[in-house]
Amino acid sequence: MRFPNKTEIERVVEKIKKEKIKGTLGLNENPSPLERFRWDLCQKFIKYKKVHGLNQKQLAELLEVDEAKVSKILHHRIHEFSTDRLIALYSKLDPDIRLKVG
Question: Are 83 and 37 in contact (CB under 8 A)?
Fold first, then answer.
């Protein structure tokens, strides 16, 4: 496999900028307690997936949601999820979950 030339790299960088390709969101610098709580909850999904050796599709099946929604949770792109919905989904994985805000 060869390393891409400068022109190819510039083309890909422009494509990324244009399409605004997004990866996993990090936590804001000064998160509110709710932002921290929601971010930590996403981390629980990630940990569960890893500990149980699941792929995204398997996790989606356990949660009874489509794989796209699971991807959003795993990448902290949860603006369309209420906190209650995230808790309800995670409780399917761990019914004995105990959560703390703040």
Answer: yes
* CA 24 from centroid of its chain's CA atoms: 6
Amino acid found at 40: D
Q: Residue 45 domain-assigned?
A: yes
Q: What tokens appear for 50 in the block?
A: 């890893």
Q: Over 90: is that where the pLDDT of 100 sits?
A: no
Asked if residue 7 belongs to a domain, the reply is no
Render pLDDT for 55-65 as a digit per residue (tens, 0 to 9): 999 999 999 99
| CA–CA dist 37, 42 (Å, integer) | 9
The reported pTM is 0.74
